[in-house]
TrEMBL record:
Reaction equation(s) it catalyzes: L-homoserine + succinyl-CoA = O-succinyl-L-homoserine + CoA
EC class (word): transferase
Site entry: Important for acyl-CoA specificity: G111
Molecular function via GO: homoserine O-acetyltransferase activity; homoserine O-succinyltransferase activity
Protein name: Homoserine O-succinyltransferase
Amino acid sequence: MPIKIPDQLPATDVLRKENIFVMPESRASTQEIRPLKVLILNLMPKKIETETQFLRLLSNSPLQVDIELLRIDDRPSKNTPEEHLNEFYRQFEIISHRNFDGLIITGAPLGLVQFEDVVYWDHLQRIMEWAKEHVTSTLYVCWAAQAGLKLLYNLPKRTREEKLSGVYHHETLQPFHPLTRGFDDTFLAPHSRYADFEPGFLDTHTDLDILATSDEAGVYLASTKDKRNVFVTGHPEYDSLTLHNEYVRDVGEGLDPMIPVNYYRNDDPSQTPRASWRSHGHLLFANWLNYCVYQQTPYDLEHFSEDRFTKDD
């Protein structure tokens, strides 16, 4: 089944060229089906690139998914045209009275910034609090995972001395959990962060189900018992060249970055990298949509109630 996004969204042409079924609103309105309503809070600077990456993963499902894009505030963007934001993104106040099946909060380049110094921290907290009563399942990605752990468990910000950048091997710890259904015993996924997610620390200070870890990268995937909050510390949505573009950017800014691990052939940045995590990313998002969203959400979103969630779901 397709994802439903505006025809004018730049991602539409990209996805159609990749043979991904993108449905116009006019056709969707004729189908006797309730699509899943998924909200994406895009905190990344290059919003068009990021929204395309997430839409690609959300398309790999038999479910019809209706996407809405949310911006954190109305400050001008250095990397995204204002016309694009005004046409395709909603302000929180416009949608705050509604309920959604799913919410995705993306990463943000704020790894070395303290939470209280993030200019939109209070507003982000407000959205996360709102989600507790208005969203069936929230997916926190990379920096957003750290922010979500702060909000839900009051965990302090934990920062690595060196940036974690590259493609890392992970081990599936709970292969029969709905989120890891179909996962290989080991799999690859990219990371690009300063945040530290040490398994022992999360195991001691939270009641999360820790589902996948890496010896080098720490916790990769974790979930609350009711699957209403899912934390992904890496970037399964990344394109094959995203880590390369970040590396080139950091070199250009004189940051002397480490070469991303297990990414370039022979660790040579002049070699074109190849994605080794696409199948994992598609499966992870399909599982989230099916088991954490579709199987949990009410048919009528107006009847949203926290009472239907139990730890045994």
